[in-house]
Write a structure and sequence with these properties.
single chain, mainly alpha, transcription regulation
């Protein structure tokens, strides 16, 4: 079931990306309206920043989609398998590529699983120490940052 939702999520991201690219005219009219209303300078600033951040997030989504499509072709795997590989390898491209090719992580540590992620969420030093022993301190720090993003 998770694999279907992963594919749906990517499809939704692609749809959102397409929607963002079709809205510059709307964004321009919003900016124009915001500039005419000098009583709300904070709102105007937010409106001006919005198209810039949307553009850069579209670029990131486009790059991720291209990388995933490349891995699907290179390793003859479906979207769900490639998505799961990225999730298990903290979203790292080189590590995921190596994992898809060999079934192992590049650094020799095991891949992350749901139980490990649940342990990571606990505020328990004993559990954290076990995860550090299993994955290494650097990988635990990367995983925490990955899960927050």
């Amino acid at each position: 079931m998770e694999s279907g939702s992963d594919a749906s999520y990517i499809s939704e991201e692609l749809s959102t990306q397409d929607g963002d690219e079709k809205s510059p005219g709307e964004a321009a009219s919003v900016l124009k309206t915001g500039q005419e209303d000098s009583a709300l300078p904070d709102t105007q600033l937010q409106r001006e920043e919005r198209p810039t951040s949307t553009c850069s997030s579209s670029d990131v989504v486009e790059e991720v989609v291209k990388t995933m499509q490349h891995f699907m072709e290179k390793f003859s795997m479906d979207l769900s398998t490639v998505t799961q590989a990225f999730l298990k390898n903290t979203g790292e491209v080189e590590t995921t590529s190596y994992f898809l090719q060999t079934g192992q992580r590049l650094d020799g540590y095991p891949i992350w699983n749901r139980e490990d992620d649940l342990g990571l969420q606990k505020d328990d030093e004993c559990v954290r120490s076990k995860l550090i022993a299993k994955f290494g301190a650097e990988n635990v720090a990367k995983r925490v940052a990955f899960r927050k993003s």
